[in-house]
Amino acid sequence: MRRFLPSLITVAIIVTLSVFQRDLLRDIFHRLSDIQPLGFIPLLAAGCAVIVARGLFLRACSPGITLRQSITADQTALAAGYGIAVGGGAIGTAMRIHMFTKWGLTSQAIATSIVATAVVPSFTTWGLPILVLIGPFIAGNTNTVETIALCAGVVLVTTSAIFWWIALRWPWVFSLVGRIGYMLRTLLLRRLPARFWRTRKLAERTTPQKFTEELRLSLAQLIRRRGLMIIASSGSTLLASFLALWVSAQLFGAVGLSLVECVIAFSLIRVLVALSPIPGAVGIAELGLIALLENAGLSTLDATGTTILYRFLTWFLPIVVGTVLWWRYSHTRQEKNNGSLRNDNPQFQDPSGSVRLHG
């Protein structure tokens, strides 16, 4: 039941709007019906830009994979995270590890990629409100919510930057993590019954202290070699996501939304999504964005319609694209494992007659 919590929340929101905001939904439907089919091309282009930008970021953090592979891994992980409320993020990470392993990345490279893709977005997510709101804050034009977001962003970004600078410069932080891992490994081997011999054998081969030290060096090397690329690609994901919001507002015909107010609303909704315990912030993001857009000057109709289009690009579309890419990835692997042609076809026999060649 918990696996389908995001879908259930979405259905609950739609049902609630259908009962209590029937006229609003009817007006939104009429507004969307008036848009010509070709008018949705910019919206789809914005969605594709978000997908490519996220793929570029993952590729920058994962040396050894192509852009096509990074898009496949990223979108399938998103589909799992958004489609499964409890444990979806872990399943998505496991799918990414599985793909990276099949594509030949080492365990150290995979761990480095996972840490980098988890840490860097937190800097850009909380750094955006600082850049956007610092000017209005100095001028005294920010409200309570904006002031809290700005102060929290300054504290979190500063603290995280100091922590990671210390952790990567001196080995004692990662060594501490390694010692804790070694203690857990020892405890596992003591408590694990002998019948689970495969798990015991896997645990015996692990070397947590060595692994964490190698991870520290690998992260430092990644930053030295690709630091600017990672920051630029992470920033491009924000730019693409903002473009999706702006295009959604323009396509729906929202009136009264300035570019500055749109940027402020976008920066705050990014923070809200980051704080949500539900993958994709289903329900929270929709209500929060509608409130922010109304505060920016839009009517309830324009704010709700813009939110529906934007969440279609950032929540529903990744589920569809990720599912299709996962099916294609699994289907391609199955064909490679089983062979796309029958083994008994004589025209694909080895001349020596001893080994069959598959197409």
What descriptive keywords fit this protein?
359 residues, mainly alpha, 13 helices
Give the topology, please:
Layout: H1 5-20, H2 22-33, H3 41-61, H4 67-83, H5 88-102, H6 107-139, H7 144-169, H8 172-191, H9 197-205, H10 208-252, H11 259-275, H12 284-295, H13 300-338
Helix pairs in contact: 1-2, 2-13, 3-4, 3-10, 3-13, 4-5, 4-13, 6-7, 6-10, 6-11, 8-10, 10-13, 11-12, 12-13
Please state the overall shape, judged from the principal axes of the Cα atoms: globular
Structural class: mainly alpha
| Overall number of strands | 0
Number of helices: 13
Order of helix and strand elements from N to C terminus: HHHHHHHHHHHHH
Strand count, sense and barrel status of the largest sheet are: none
Helix content: over 70%
User: Terminal Cα separation, in Å?
Assistant: 43 Å
The amount of beta strand, in percent, is: under 5%
What does this structure look like?
The protein is mostly helical and 359 residues long. The protein contains 13 helices and no strands. Helix 3 packs across helix 13, helix 4 packs across helix 13 (300-338) and helix 11 packs antiparallel against helix 12 (284-295). The longest helix is centred in the middle third of the chain and has 45 residues, at 208-252. The protein is globular.
